[in-house]
Fold Carbohydrate ABC transporter permease.
Amino acid sequence: MARAVAKGLAYLGLGAFAVMTTYPIVWLVMSSFKTTQAFQLDRLGLPRRWMVDNYVQAWRIGQFDVLMGNSLLYTAVSTAAIVVLSVAAGFAFAKLRSRATPLLYGGFVIGILLTIQSIMVPLFLMATRTHLYNTRLGVLMVYTAMGLPMGVYLCTEYIKGLPDSVIESARLDGAGYLTILWRIVFPMVRPVVTTLAIVTIPGVWNEFMLINVLVSDNALKSLPVGILRFSGALSSDYGKQFAGLVIGMLPMVVFYLLLRNQLTKGVVAGAVKG
């Protein structure tokens, strides 16, 4: 009896938590279909007239077609670069040790402690002097560099747990290090690669501060900047503002819904291995 009561209370608590978590999203979507006047008259009720035009106008004002394309490019390329470079560096630090390994590894890992605010000014000066300011290449290089410290740390610690005998057997069979890395190490580090991608994709997609430091051209900015355009004079136009927020939120929601099983498996596998 006591066990059933405890189980019921647990379900009740989880249900209340689920409602508190999802209701703000439902309220935001519902409000995005209202006019400003309808929202001010009834902030919690369903819209009497569903204003789909809010999304059309929000998409045009925010220039989301351009910004979403840029966000996809920055996220896909920088995530792929971070994963490949982190696994390669982790393999070298874990299995190809030399006297310089502790120094080089420490140089990467100390980057975890750096905050974006502390490097904004030197980053802007470097991008300007190297002519990478206002270029997609400059954004991709910075995003990749910012993700490498955590990526190298995770991959190095994971690869250290792989048996040396596998690497030595491949070397005795005549395989080079690049062959070992591609055909042996990459398939074995799939859990940590999944974990790294889980951490990197939302971080790059939602990044807001660096993109404003590295580019001033609106055609090169990313999705979060489009939401900023609904501040100022448009801050009181609630329908379009909420529609812009939903457009900005939707890709990450779809990402989590489609890949939730893989995300859970990747985190659990990485945690168990670590």
